[in-house]
Write a structure and sequence with these properties.
Number of helices: 9
Largest sheet: 5 strands, mixed
Number of strands: 11
Helix content: 10-25%
CATH topology: Coagulation Factor XIII, Chain A, domain 1
Distance between the termini: 125 Å
Shape: globular
Strand content: 15-25%
Radius of gyration: 32 Å
CATH class: Mainly Beta
Structural class: alpha+beta
CATH architecture: Distorted Sandwich
Strand order of the largest sheet: 3-11-10-5-6
Length: 343
Amino acid sequence: MMNAVIFLSLLVVVSGHTLLTNLTIAGVTTNSCLRPTMNWDGHNAPDFPIMANTFPSGILGINYTCGWTDGTVSGAALPSKAVCNISAGSTVKASWWHGAIQGEDPVVDSYIHNSHRGPFIVYMAKWDQNGGLPTGPAWFKIYESGVLKDHREFWNMEWTSPHGLNANSGGLSFQVPSQLAPGRYLMRFEIIALHDTIKQPYVRCADVRISGSGTVQPSSNLLSIPGSINLNDPGFTYNLYQLENRPAYIIPGGRPFNFAVAVPDSSTIPTSSSKMATTSTSQMSTSESKMSSSGSKASGTSESSLEDCNDTTTDRCECDNTCDASLTSVSLLIIFMFAIFLQ
């Protein structure tokens, strides 16, 4: 019986695709910053997946970047109607939909067909242009979610798609890193359905503007899309229906960028001159008065003096500012002895 279930699962052909339709940002739902979609190969199907190895070149072609385009300024290569403002550190919800079709559950299958199991991934790329698509290394991953509940039997496993989608009315939420530097970006959303031999990525992008006090602008280990995954990637060839010795699932496309250990972008950090400009006049006057009152002793705190103090040939009193005090004590002793001698 179980073999029959697996066999039917492999043979079933479903038209339950999905499409990112809205973003919810700061409580407001909009689609104005989503890149346009276009019909696939003349069919009325903007929700058609970027099939792994079909028209025109699947995950190795330009359609895999942000969705369907004919390679010119069309479809996903066109600019969005607006740019969405997002605060770094805030939560964004991405809502997906495909609509129930005949023979499918009108509730469960309204977001994606229940057989379409796989991960949800969010990438970003610095992008200041209106329209167009990045080429070469530009993308960094900020979020991923795959298996929610593992189980020996594949039918008892729970995945971000469809289980996470169904549990949240088609919405998948994630947090934008608080360390991310302000600026214009492309935000890329992807669900990979692993149910078929030919895997099915669903992708779409949005033009966004990040605000906040973050200072990290990822510039190393960036990904090219297409190029972030290949047809032999274990996270892409994964067999949902393998019962024995099924490996743990690893989401493709590399790990999310580690903002916690990233080096801040120097262009986003206030310069020393700007910090000095914010110093109050009274603080500067106080510093100047202290410097003038210290006179020649101030030289004892200079960089050259501190370096000299590390030299073992330097007189210790020159470093500890005790020379004057020692000389004064000696002078008093000599005067005292001379006074006794005169008596």
